[in-house]
Fold these 4 entries.
Entry 1:
Amino acid sequence: MIDTGGSYKSEDKSGENLMEYLHKIGLNNLEYVFLTHFDEDHSKNLININKSYNPIVFSRTNGDKILKKKYNQGNVYVSLRNKQNIRIGNVDIKIIDKPISNEENDKSIVYKLYINNISLLITGDISGEYERNILKDDIKSDILKVSHHGSKSSSDSHFLKTVRPKLAVISLG
């Protein structure tokens, strides 16, 4: 799983809905969770996931401390680094980690996945400035998970022309 979802709202039910769905489809084992960053809407539902699964969590350096402090979660944790490659089954994952500021969104890790000759770029909540910072990386992809929920602060035309996705996906609440 990449990002768990969640909400800033105290009455958020997304974690319960997520778990209901995962159980309904018969997911008995969730080994890994990759987090782009630690805003609630990308990571808070790890709390719910840990009630049924205890996945290894992958994200940026010191993320284990953030999970412990912010959510009181103590998963086995793997710190990722820029240009690292990971293979899980038939999925290859390339890490792009080039934070440009101390703002949480711009600390997002970008994941490029290769699955059965299809490439997917997952951008977290990176800003247009971060996008410009990675234009020379291997970001051309068949599918783009659009940055920052499709907000106007990301995905300018130059970035989109470089990625050249056949399909773009926007995740929002």
Entry 2:
Amino acid sequence: MPRDQGTIDALLDAMRVLRRHYDDRARGMGLTMSRARVISALSRIEGASQAELATELDIEAPTLKRLLDGLEADGFVTRRPMEGDARKNALFLTPRGRDSGIIAFGRQLRSDVVEGIEAEDLRRTRDTLRRIAGNIARLSGK
């Protein structure tokens, strides 16, 4: 097996296991993984516009709109007119969104998945993954 194939396979395996774990926990909180990602991202950039949040999540605006509609109907997020441009809405978590547990779970998960790994190893891994992402972006013209 070529050296690069094993690396990519290991990366995909780690992503699959992480996604499954996150999805199981989100489902246990009454959320889909997609909805949980919106709540987590919004916790970092509250007050963002829908376009800004779509960019942060790297998803299409219509997809985000459907997710936000459902999250708003279920009481997790609220939309408020943006200051200076009433045509746009700023997005905020409601108390239910903040207290859903998914934000704390995400923070803890980030810590747990790197437990026991030396800081220098993490720095090298992060640098390598960023280079891989850059290579992929170049391949796809983005």
Entry 3:
Amino acid sequence: MNIIATDLGTTNIEVSVYDKSLTPLNTLSETVNCNRNRDGELVEFDVDQYFICIKEMINKTAEIGKRANNENIIQIVLTGQAETLILLDQNKTPIHPAISWLDMRSRKECDKLYSELCYHITGQLKLIPTWTITKMLWINCNKSDLQSV
């Protein structure tokens, strides 16, 4: 019985395979190809490319584990540092590049949300542009072409 652990990181994707005693059998790592603008405000990546990479890495580590001890995978664990916004259409197809939690494009939207949902309503002392709701508001205000999808 082998276990695969997958870290869906901001800069790297890492996939490790362990035996039932949690002894590491192998680890693979791939760099995440992010698109960043010059000022570092926008951080996006291709959803399909990211998913294909994860799937291939899981398959490779499963094969490595099987060769190491002739055992099958019984569990796949996924972890990640923070949320990423992925917009899908009705067919669950991505309609925009994924927006990383590191993306800071929604500073203006933070101010708008804070003025409307201040501390006495939400309990939040501060709104920051890494929060998904601020990115969703940015999309709503700046990407009118996506609203009809």
Entry 4:
Amino acid sequence: MECGVGWWVIVGIAVGWFWYRKKTNRVDKKCGIPEGNLGWPFIGETLDFIACGYTSRPASFMEKRKFLYGKVFKTNILGTPIIVSTDPQVNKAVLQNHAKSFVPAYPKSIRELMGDHSILQMSGNLHRRIHGIIARFLKSPELKSRITKDIENSVKNTLASWQHTNDHLIYVQNEVKKITFQVLVKVLISIGPGEDLEFLKTEFDEFIKGLICLPIKLPGTRLYKSLKAKQKMFKMVKKIVEERKRTMDKISMEDKGSNNTVIDAVDALLRDNDEAKERNPLPLDFITGNIIEMMIPGQETMPTAMTLAVKFLSGCPVALSQIRKENMELKRQKTRSCDEYSWTDYMSLTFTQNVISETLRSANIINAVWRKAVKDVEIKGNLIPEGWCVLTSFTSVHMNEEYYENPYQFDPWRWEKTGAAVVNNCFTPFGGGQRLCPGLELSRLEIAIFLHHLVTSYWWIAEEDEIVYFPTVKMKRKLPIKVTTWRNSP
């Protein structure tokens, strides 16, 4: 009996292997498919890919294969045959050729959590419409003026809580999350500190845990718990959207000329609906779901970037001295003139912005983008077969000596002479093409405000900590530091 079971297992593996090789061989016969190795049946080269993610050089998976096969190669990750591009020109072509040849591709757990109408998965005119609405809102002068003050208040309140810590450790990664979530929710739905904000924070933390997990929705599983948390968030946010819609309709009926101020993302989406009644209006459930989804990049990437900026500055005393000098000069100017800080003040801090650029390049918080080919596509002589995924590796470009000298060294001064890297598509921390992050300027502002008030208020000593790159970028110990206020500093 046991021999019979063992025999059928062997037969099953053999049949699976034969089917897998037949399928891949059929694709391999197409001319122009990049060289590479698809690895073992089903698992492909997944184990090596994950293992490299736990090292200090996660790009080593790409580097090994780039050396063997060239800048564009084929592999198999998570049971999916993919073409990997470490070529900035190929990456640009993939990112800009949106909808015509490529559609977004994400793990099943993300698709389950986001739903069918997620902005992550939509394409074509609807995506352009939503992306355009949010981009215009985030770039508006009214928001820039208002949000600068909101970020300052959030940063100052958080930093003020450090003043009586004595010898206790501050965990930077935890602290900056208090700042970023408060700012994020204010931008999206205008909720300030209080019970509603704490409720959203608690449920969001539970929701976000399911982004990378087994796609099983049985009670007790990670995905099930995350979906339940999303339902609670959805109920609360939808109530806000519905109330805002009723208020907007009432004001519009009473005086059409008196409701011109867009205060948050909900307003921006509802106003577009009001101005586009002849077109397909956006359902309120659709608006609610996408408001929740917009919390993800802001709360997952921003705290990491701010934390890593502190880590990198801690390990580079010369850079820390220069950024402190630049920001102290701005602070003295504002003290003498009694003027408030503006968006422009922070964005014009040249060395501070160089530190931010170098942090984004070195950290690679968004390490790649996945797309799926809807037809055979050829780019620079490389064929991406229909149905295959293509992974545009930003990390491989950011950490390539061909584009950045000593790429593993934190060097903010490189940006004084490496402006061409941005022009040549070698700097893509915010993605590119039609899906370029609409909040990129807001992200830079938030980091700049945090760094300004940190370096002009405190000295600190960071304890030993290391960056973890898989499944997402974060600090292993949340970056513990001991702080000393400026007036008590050496």
